[in-house]
Amino acid sequence: MNDVTPVLLSGGSGTRLWPVSRKSFPKQFASLMGDRSLFQESALRLSGPRYAAPLVMTNADFRFIVTEQLAEVGITPAAILIEPAGRNTAPAVLAAALHLAATDSEALLLVAPSDHVVPDAEAFGRAVEQGIPAARAGRIVTFGIQPTRAETGYGWLELDGEGEDGPVPLRRFVEKPEAAAAALMLDQDRFLWNAGIFLFCARSMVQAFRTHAPEYLAPVQAALDQAQTDLGFLRLAPGPWAELPDMSIDYAVMEKADNLSVVRFTGHWSDLGGWDAVWREAQADAPAPRGAVTDARSTAIDCDDVLLRSEAEDTEIVGIGLKDIMVVATGDAVLVADMKRAQDVRHAVAALKSKGARQAETHLRDHRPWGWFETLVMGERFQVKRIVVHPGAALSLQSHVHRSEHWIVVSGTARVTVDDQVRLVTESQSIYVPLGAVHRMENPGKVPMVLIEVQTGVYLGEDDIIRYEDVYSRT
Fold this sequence. Notes:
With about 475 residues, the protein is α/β, with parallel strands linked by helices. Helix content is about 20%, strand content about 30%. It has a 6-stranded antiparallel β-sheet with strand order 18-19-20-27-22-25, with no helix packed on it. Strand 9 and strand 10 form a beta hairpin. Helix 3 (about 90-100) crosses helix 7 (about 215-225). The radius of gyration is 24 Å and the shape is globular.
């Protein structure tokens, strides 16, 4: 059929899953529930005969992560729109609708966050099919999740009717409730969790903005009209985009519109909105003994209802006699918290930012268009990194003002340019890059190239780079 174009929203930061999710590499791109990332699982779920190629909304920092992760699962996007700045979901949804309306005002869009867990893709696809007739008729269709607990961390939907199959008119949105209100709603069939997933035709959403949030139309249209194509991405113009209010699609349009319908989804779903949700998901198929969820580098001894998770290869976590505790360790940070305080993890990020801690937003591993690097050791006037370069990829032609570099190839082969000399450097060989030399590193092979870089100098910051050529159009 290929009737529906998925719109994957992938610009969020996911602070409640710190320290694994950070601004530089948020939760949608992390492998939290298996070998694939949440973004990859979302793209796969919304692929196949029901769907057209996806449209992705993201920001400049994540554009190459998006393309790399889609390529890994064999999906070619119809377009990747780059938002110049985060303005929440309202402008992103309108930009997607206007982009598709330019060629087909009747195009159907399915807007979905890219960080949700929905194991039964076929069941969700059938729910989408139920909503298509209503969307074609001009309704905005949202998907309500059959609740399984009195959840206070989600918004809820109240239906104008109970138990019907197919789209049911929406009576109202319910903000995240208090525990007593959530318990009352759980006992009534007309209340569902709000999944934040919407199905509509392009003209309906444009009209909804025209009626309820007209201030968005001109700036978003101008950002599209003035957009520039860059290496296959569509960069929205920053000037008009800067004029836009920062608001969610729920507040801008959905809570005001009178043409909303709800399709009930009874399958399993999670927004993975905190480590307590990860703990629950890990037990979805088989509950852990005494509720003690561990990974390969964690051990629970006489523990009840705990999450012990180590993302660091050389760090073991051992819990003894713990109850309702979550411990998550990475190579540079450890979170220890009461499971009931999972929603408060975002406050840790704010506290770290206020004290200037790098761990608030950036990982030790830094993802780049050509691969990634991580800092192994840092001291006064020196730094040691491990660098991995993808096959066929190349770093920019560059020089440094404050540091020299020594490269040792661990595996693969590097083609190295230093001033006017070009040479191949293979495993166990090394090369020296003097301060000020114009240099470049490339991987001409078919396997990832790994090397160790030793930097020495008075300043070792990543901004000490003068770029002369860059295949990824970075400035």
